[in-house]
Amino acid sequence: MTEKCACEPAEVLLFPCSGGSNCGRIADRAAAELHSAGRGRLFCLAGLGGHVKGLIESAKAAKVLVAIDGCPLACARKTLEHAEFVPDVHLVVSDLGIEKRSGHLEYTAEELDPCCNRLEQELAARVALTAKPSP
Amino acid sequence: MKKVQVLGTGCPKCQQTAANAKEAAQAAGVQIELEKVEKPADIAKFGVMFTPALAIDGEVKVAGRIPTVDEIKVWLAS
Fold first, then answer.
1. Is the CB of residue B51 less than 8 Å from the CB of residue B43?
2. d(CA B39, CA B42)
3. What is the pTM of this model?
4. Looking at the 3D structure of chain A, how many domains does it have?
């Protein structure tokens, strides 16, 4: 059996905040949707915050780092910065017109779907602008 | 004796990484034990998502690209 080679690093890594609010859950779900759609790869934000060396070195191999935060507290972006990364793209769910409800994890498809669409559009536009040339 | 582990499923990039490690060790005069870690489940234990990767004495030094001989020499010396 031929094992799949992991020698082609993902172009785009997605780091949602996954916080404890409806917006945090939407950020997490939207990142998973983007992952499933092949727009990027969902990555381990906690691993970077925890300074897990293998994950940090893997993240260095990506071309575009995307922080997806639920709200302006920007915990995902700040966690990346704590690990000495600067996200190329930073998206905030509450900027898309969703009111943050702390401690309330429920959200509707009517809230999630426009966010996924908007994130996908912004991601495509910004990735095109921020993509680094291949070495 | 330093333990150098090359992480990857065995493609040419992994083989080049192993060759660079051998060359670096020889140039630096450092004795190494070279191990190839090829099973994805074993690679994942290092937290490595992209290969080739290289670890020295259990610490991942690089992932997702072939390290140069000079880079590995520095890591072996530290």
1. yes
2. 5
3. 0.85
4. 1
- List the domain boundaries for chain B: 2-77
Q: Is the ipTM of this complex over 0.90?
A: no
Residue A133 belongs to some domain of the structure: no
Distance separating alpha carbons of residues A63 and A132, to the nearest angstrom: 6
CA atoms within 13 A on the CB side of A25: 16
Q: Which of B9, B38, B48 sits opposite A58 (nearest CB)?
A: B48
Residue A1 lies in a domain: no
Whether A79 is in a domain gets the answer yes
Residues of B in contact with A7 (CB under 8 A): 8, 11, 13-14, 50-52
Tokens of A109: 């498809």
Nearest to A57 among B9, B10, B53 (CB): B53
* Class of B2-77 in CATH: alpha beta
pLDDT digits (tens, 9 = 90+) for A13-35: 999 999 999 999 999 999 999 99
Which H helix or E strand runs over A122?
A: helix A109-130
| A4 located within any domain | no
The bridge status of strand A89-92 relative to strand B32-37 is: unpaired
Distance from CA of B54 to the nearest CA of A (A): 10
Instruction: State which residues form the domain around A47.
Output: 12-128
Kindly give, in sequence order, each residue whose CB lies less than 8 Å from that of residue B4, ignoring residues fewer than 6 positions away: B21, B25, B32, B33, B34, B35, B54, B55, B56, B76
Residues from chain A contacting residue B50 (CB–CB below 8 Å): 6-10, 58, 61
